[in-house]
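User: Design a sequence. Structure:
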């Protein structure tokens, strides 16, 4: 993954006036790509949701059967204006997701089309609120989490990568990115061997994973502590979800500015693009389907963990 796409998206979003339409316009020169935006307003303000579909040569959008990967850029907001000036750390997820879309679109224009469709979603809010959180303040969102999932967790995908800045904690002490175990319908499954392989191939280093708890895969607003919102998409779907956390060695507040590192964002985006390549052609699996069925037969469904109550 060249830094070129990352820097292009970074500079686009580093503005007090950026909107979802600005992101959509970025894809106007790619006729094979479908990009759209819609506005959602809540009690704390509003945001522009963005959806970008990069069709595959054998994807469902063209009548094929290759699986579809969903990539979500998860965040509260890319900026906290007027209390903070500039991009906040929380913006990394949105930048990484749009970078993935831009890289895939550029590949397609150059003749390198993936087999499966890839659907990228995120939202653009340069003036989101903040909220207290231990050990450092989080970015809040102008809209509720149900609306977030309704717009970002789309029908038709077969697996989801959820990319989110995850620096406001003392759990992950690594600069770069890390991946979570696979979450499916309330079960925290083993870390995917295929994703570990792809991470080691693309980074040139041993894979880095991060722990998650039962609390982290329950819906926001239920009163329990969450690492952050990286695995909230898992509460709104029956497909496997893996978190891709952009991380730091120090504890960085989500509302901190000057804390985004373009190289780390590019690494996470490169990983997601390589997963998309393999997932579409069936050589990357997020979980062992037979083992999951065995768990269901032994212990039953855990889908109740996806509910708020």
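Assistant: Done.
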């Amino acid at each position: 993954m060249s830094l070129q796409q990352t820097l292009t998206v970074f500079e686009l979003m580093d503005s007090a006036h950026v909107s979802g339409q600005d992101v959509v316009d970025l894809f106007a020169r790619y006729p094979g790509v479908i990009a759209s935006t819609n506005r959602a307003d809540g009690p704390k303000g509003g945001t522009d949701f963005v959806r970008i579909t990069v069709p595959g040569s054998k994807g469902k959008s063209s009548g094929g059967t290759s699986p579809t990967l969903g990539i979500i850029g998860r965040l509260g907001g890319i900026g906290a204006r007027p209390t903070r000036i500039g991009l906040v750390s929380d913006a990394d997820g949105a930048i990484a997701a749009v970078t993935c879309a831009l890289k895939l679109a550029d590949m397609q224009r150059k003749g390198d089309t993936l087999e499966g469709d890839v659907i990228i979603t995120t939202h653009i809010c340069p003036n989101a609120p903040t909220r207290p959180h231990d050990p450092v303040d989080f970015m809040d969102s102008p809209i509720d989490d149900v609306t977030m999932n309704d717009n970002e967790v789309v029908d038709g995908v077969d697996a989801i990568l959820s990319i989110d800045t995850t620096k406001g904690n003392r759990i992950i002490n690594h600069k770069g990115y890390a991946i979570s175990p696979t979450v499916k319908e309330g079960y925290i499954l083993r870390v995917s061997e295929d994703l570990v392989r792809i991470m080691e191939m693309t980074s040139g280093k041993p894979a880095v994973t991060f722990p998650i708890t039962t609390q982290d895969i329950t819906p926001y607003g239920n009163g329990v502590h969450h690492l952050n919102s990286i695995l909230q998409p898992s509460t709104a779907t029956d497909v496997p979800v893996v978190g891709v956390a952009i991380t730091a060695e120090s504890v960085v507040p989500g509302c901190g500015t000057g804390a985004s590192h373009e190289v780390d964002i590019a690494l996470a985006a490169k990983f997601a693009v390589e997963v998309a390549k393999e997932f579409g052609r069936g050589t990357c699996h997020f979980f062992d389907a037979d083992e999951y069925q065995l768990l269901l037969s032994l212990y039953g469904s855990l889908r109740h963990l996806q509910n708020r109550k």
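The chain has a mean pLDDT of 96. The radius of gyration is 18 Å.
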